[in-house]
Structure formats: C-alpha cells, structure tokens
Recover the amino acids of this structure.
C-alpha cells in the first residue's frame, strides 16, 4: 500500500504541474473566490481518480501476465515520449499553447453562464471544466495502470493527495508560479519518472 501511495503521489504531483487543468484552476482563481474554485477542482480530480482506479481494478481481472507487460510498455512509452518532447523544447519554452487552451475553455464556459454567478455555479463550473480537461490525460491513464497492478487504496489516496497539492498551488499562487514553471524541466522530470516506474515494474515481475 505504501509503495502504491508513494508512486501515485510522485507521478501525479509532477505530471499535473503545468498541465491544462492546472492552468484552468489558475485562471478560474483569478476571477472567482479561491475557496470555491479549489472545492470544484479538487472534487473533479478526486472523482476522476476514483473512476480511474475502478477501471484499473476492472482491468486487473485480465490475466496477470498481460497486465504486467502492458503496465511496463505504457510507462516506458510515456517516458520516452515525454523525454522526446522535452528534447524538442527550447530552454525558454513557455506554456503558451496550454494556457491558451485553458483560457478558451474557461471563456466558453463563462459565456454560457450568467454574469452574476452563485457559489454553487462557480463550484460546478470548476468541476466540469477540470473533469473534462482531465479525460484521456496521461495522468488518468497512468492512474489506471497503477491501479491495475498495485494496491487500489494506496493509489487512490496518493493520487488524490497529489491532485490536491497541485490544485492548492494553482489556486493559491498559480499566477506567480505559472510564469516560473519550466515546461521543459517538468516534461523531462515526468519522462524520467515514467521510465523509473517502467523499470521498477519490470524488475518486480522478474
């Protein structure tokens, strides 16, 4: 359980920094009460984590040998892709594209809501935008892979805590921190982390 908790916590915390949902939280917190945004964002990430873990548990019903090799292949593939992406980025690469996507998503959601928003409306907006932004994200797939081969409770607690930490960073000081985040460094660290988990999964199966 401790191993699953630690793996999920590290993987989610590193992968979510500078992600689309991270910037959605930053932008929302600039226009709405931070407490309400944090509740909506964290609830969405927790719900996505639980769904991913449940899906991972369903996948675990498949023959163990298939799950084992699929987990190794998935982590190594993600790791290589992230390292490749990092190598193509300049040292001054920014998150402009990701920020623009987040801004567009928030702007579209705001246009569909009344100008005077209730507390519940703000929480729901944060929840829906974050949940939709997280669908198909690499952290969701990584959570499914971890839950398929590790203790589900440890993965759930670790992933939710990791998401909660990143959401807190985004909501409390995201605007200041966002400009200091090096997309290249975060991508490189994420790639290394995925490779490490792939190697560990391979060793554990020996």
């Amino acid at each position: 359980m401790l191993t699953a908790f630690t793996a999920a916590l590290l993987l989610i915390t590193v992968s979510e920094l500078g992600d689309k949902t991270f910037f959605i939280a930053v932008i929302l917190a600039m226009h709405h009460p931070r407490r309400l945004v944090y509740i909506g964002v964290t609830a969405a990430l927790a719900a996505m984590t639980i769904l991913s873990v449940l899906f991972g548990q369903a996948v675990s019903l498949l023959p163990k040998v298939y799950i084992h090799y699929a987990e190794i292949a998935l982590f190594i593939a993600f790791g290589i892709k992230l390292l490749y992406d990092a190598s193509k980025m300049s040292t001054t690469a920014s998150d402009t594209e990701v920020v623009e996507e987040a801004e567009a998503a928030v702007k579209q959601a705001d246009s569909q809501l009344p100008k005077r928003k209730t507390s519940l409306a703000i929480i729901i907006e944060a929840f829906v935008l974050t949940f939709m932004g997280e669908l198909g994200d690499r952290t969701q797939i990584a959570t499914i892979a971890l839950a398929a081969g590790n203790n589900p409770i440890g993965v759930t607690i670790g992933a939710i805590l990791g998401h909660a930490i990143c959401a807190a960073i985004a909501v409390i000081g995201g605007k200041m921190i966002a400009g200091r985040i090096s997309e290249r460094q975060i991508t490189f660290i994420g790639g290394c982390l995925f490779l490490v988990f792939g190697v560990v999964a391979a060793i554990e199966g020996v």
Residues 152-178 form the longest helix (27 residues). The mean pLDDT is 82.
